[in-house]
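debug: dumping io for the single-chain case to check the tokenizer round-trip. Nothing else runs in this session.
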Amino acid sequence: MAQKTPEPAPRSARERLLAAAEQLFYEEGINTVGIDRVIERAGVAKASLYDCFGSKEELIRAYLYERHEARRARITAMLARYATPRERLLGVFDTLAELFAQPRFRGCAFVRASAELRAGSRVKSVCDESRVWIRTLFTDLAREAGARDPEALAAQLVLLYDGASISAQMDGNPAAAASARAVAAVMLDAATAAVKTTKTTRKTAPAKPSVRVAPRRPRSRATA
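debug: decoded output
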């Protein structure tokens, strides 16, 4: 007799609210979607939202933090497949290619949320944390790959990363990830070639000839 597949445990009110927020906030915007729509989509009582989060702003923070953690886990798992530092750095753009191919892709959630935030909003801290993480990731990968100036290269790669995401969103161009990856490869090769050239020059530079100084002859004393 075939065994029954155990049914998944019912999700908590917090999990249902986050799932509803993820769908609605990402697709339509954090300001456009009212709290009543989130509650209706989640199928929970209004009191549950305030018990779990206290306010809509805290729900937005939680939603963005969940996306940050999901992105970090996705990129970390993807990079574990690669064998060399160079492949891992370029692999970040491979994760973008997979993301851009998803039917629900609407651009970077943090960029979109930042554009809607009011001055002084506590949500900004989550967006800032996400930015710091991606910049630090590129810096670490650039350093492991042997770039001469990892911080400078990372700043350039973040621009590529952002540009690819905006192109995929605004132009409907999923190939933007592959284009950004190709440019990143050229930049990385140039950054590491500078280090190799410097090392080679140091090894092959001819030694400076030593200069021998002839001994000075003592002056003869004049006779009276």
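debug: round-trip ok. Residues 220-224 have pLDDT under 50 and may be disordered.
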